[in-house]
## 1
Amino acid sequence: MKAIKYISHLAFTSSLILLFGCGQSSSTTQVETEEPVVQTPVEEPPAEPEPVITTASVYAIGDVLLHDSVYNAARVNDGFDFDSSFERVAPILERADVAIANQESMIGGSEIGLSSYPAFNSPFEIGDALQRAGIDLVTTANNHTLDRGVRAIENSINHWNEIGMPYTGSFLSEEDKANIRTLTANEISFSFLAYTYGTNGVIPKQPYHVNYIDLEQMRPEIEKAEQTTDLTVVSLHFGTEYETLPNESQTELTQKLADLGVDIIIGHHPHVLQPPKMLEGVDGNQTFVVYSLGNFLSGQQGDDRNTGGIIGIDVVKTTEDDVSTFELKNPMFYPTFTQKSSEGYYEVVPLKSAKPELFSPVSNHMSQWLPELTIEQ
């Protein structure tokens, strides 16, 4: 009812206006209206951009040194099958963003004659198997690089190129040597360099055939790597064979490399495990070093020489305001053991399954300088 009354009142008022307004044409009726109230929105301060965090894992394995007992056991028809050797550890390698192997015996191929200690030459097929197992790059600077001369080096490198496997440590030319190998994973870039203490007294035909440990020659290459990528990884063939702790020359050299800004150092040659450690460079930078990863696949005898492993470290990149910082986190070690399988071939298996009694002492040995090291199995 209120609505009806209100409408009638409006109709009556309108009639009066029309009646009297006809005689007063000069008058104008003004209707006052209220200006709408406009509320100015309160501006929120811009949100701080969240830092962008990415992570890449780097794994490495020790010496792949093929004695005749190993490659003879892998013969099939007209070639060799090493896939079975890595079958039980391939899932660990495959989960890495970047995985590195030290191919200690050159893969010069069967055409120049395979050979074992003291002058090694291995089948091409070991390179193929490593790639299928998850390896992304091989290092080839070691005391056996020159065992079979230039032909073995050229054959080896040609095969690495044929299958698309990056290599470093021995080269075909000065131009090849100057091309620092790099890999990128999850927007984090890595440079790779490799050097050896010596080549068993054999003199290279050309200086680019093998990289030697010489700090004055290493320095410009490391500086170039530092300017090229986010992180620098250096593999060193050094130390005393069968010694379970690094010697003074190893610790001095790794500290010098840390001071140059090297981020990760992977050691080989002793054929037994030496523990990892986190170093601090002169500028306060982190350097992760493992002094020796022992043998990964070889025909050497003895539990200590058949015990090796997969070392891993996470690289965490944090980008904020266009500035990136890097941290090395979550070091891990996966101990392995090389044994002869029931079918006769050599296989790399988890240490705990092959030699459970060794798992605890090996774990303690490897974590003695790095308590945060996670031992996996």
## 2
Amino acid sequence: MKLRSDHYIKRNAFFQLFFWTALFLFGTARNYGAHDEGISTDIIIYNIGHWIFQIIGANFIYSILFRNFFDRKKYVLFSLLLIISLYVISVINRIFIIYIAEPFFINEPQDSLFSIFTDIGYLLTCYTFPIISGAFIFIAVMFVIRYTDEKETSIQLQKEKAELELRSLKSQLNPHFLFNTLNNIYSLSLSNSEKTSESISRLSDILDYILYQGSRKNVLLSEELSVIDHYIGLESLRYNEGRLKISKTIHFDPATLIPPLLYLTLVENAFKHGAGQSTEQTGIKIDVSSDGPYSVFRIENTFEGHENTNHEGIGLKNIERQLRLYYHDDFTLNVSKENNIFRVEIKTPVTV
């Protein structure tokens, strides 16, 4: 936050230097064109005198009045203080010109303080209007800069919020996935299965992927499919030969990127609600392909009709939320159940 504050201060200082220098040069050039004899020293001194109070007036109106009253919707008090401030700044400006600037080049009787305070018409014409004109341009530009800053800040906050939510979703998903996998290994260990050591080795590969790739924004599709193969191998150790019927059709660009754990979660979901809740042979089909500018991942699993077919657990809800955070509305998630087959299809933009 300090870096952003320092950046704002530096940019504001640069803008003020550029804006007020340009305004002074413009006013000087305009006076040069209005006088045949060119610009005299007294005109430059007058311009500097007015220029100083334009800077003071504009910054006071924007930084104090707008920030503390207009922004807080205290419009009546803002209007009243604006009128008073313009009058006071104009009077001080005229006193500065008459008693400090003019003695350098004019040897004439000075206006009295009473005349300075009461000659409203002259104050408005020669002092208030120049302050207002400079302040109006300055404040308009400052509002544009402020709007841009607030928009950038809002976008940054939304991005940070999305990243925090994604990390939170992944932290929910990883324990959910690990709980199911460790439960599988525990079942194998109870029966003193020779497959226990192999399952631990495969789990090690999966954990390596989750720990070192799961925190990244994107991973190669080939990496995700590789860890899916490890997971399928791990799950297959639980069942007798012929218990699972798994088929895969893969057609994809090797450079395609996807969010990590996106497809793995769906595969884990298919095993949990398919083979995990069935005593018959369970079929699982995985298809990865391209559809124009989109990558398509389809997975389906069979289930027994009398089993609880509610697949809407942590996994799918988590996946849908991640998809929305990654792709906003530029994705498709289709879930269907028909003839004891549960299908999920995800279509996301191709990222390389």
## 3
Amino acid sequence: MKILSLMKYELLKIFRNKGFLFALIIVPFLLSYLGSNLFPENMLSDYKIAVYNEDNSFLGKFGFLFLSQFFKWKDAVQITSHAELIDAIKSNEYDSILIVPKGFMNDLKNYKDTKLILVPNPNDLSSSVAIYTVVKALFNELSGIPEISAGSTTQFLLKGGISVDKNRNPPDIEIQIPNINDGSLTNIKNASLDFQDMLAPSTILVLVLIFSMGGIGISVSQTKENGLLDIYRANGLKIWEFSIYKLLTYVLLGLISSIITFYVFKYFGSNFAGKEIYMMILIILNVLMFATFGLLIASLSKTTRTTTFLLAIFIGTMVLFGDVLISIPKDSMWYKWSYILPIKYSIDSLRKVALLNYNLSLVVKDIYVILLFTVVSFIVSYISLSYVEKK
């Protein structure tokens, strides 16, 4: 077939470039390694947190006050009943909800295994991840709770007064997934809110933007500019065939970089809660969408220089303002504007599946947007390329 022959020619041309081949393999590896090992875990700003204390004993109330003061959450809201908890989940206004179970402080005091429950905000996972990471790190550092050293006043002062009992195990942080429709909570096995797990979808998308969207955009522009497209047309190649073989080529490259990234993150300890098949489906859909977007930009540009400029603008805008690498506060105007960018739907769906073990039916709206953007981009690029060819 023409398409397969041309695709083979395109791949051979690409892989002759040793620099590109090196980048295709090494860049995903480096980004995944750095994200897995060097991402800081000591960042916490002011977040809107709700705390529901089910432990109404005297010790439990004391523990609640201790937690509130210790973590210095300025905007923490206390929930006093289960009905308020359901309303808080439905409102989806808190960055996270922390639940202190009944008997928590007493079990902790008696060296029993304990747990705290963290309810993330599915629509603001960046904030939830920050809260989870700091809470977990602080409890691990404390190895339990501070206590007054026993003995006389002299011994108390000599031993430092307040000490930490290293024999007391820190509580587990259990993640429960909220249903904002009915306010219920679900304990999903392997749900994860680690920073490196959240960074994996971001890294995957950045590489897709570079290799698929950027790659096809520059390739198509060069093919138009050097007259090769005219030669193809003179030999009977149709515009749709040209578009398909370019898309298949750079979709393949995007998939290679994405799959390398995915498995490198797993190798370095990332815990993807979602099913691997769901992740692969979303990766394929996103690679196809951004490759089609790159084709669209190239079809509308007259020169390779213009295409390169537009690609830099669009890729930079999506990375900076699409909630990919930088968390955008919900109260800012940029948060609302981010939903005009296709990458916002990509990152939301990938994070929900990877971190919260969502199935595809729970991110179906994001998938619809991705498919719609893909179809529209392909149709417009086809019309644009056909118009240029006729002209």
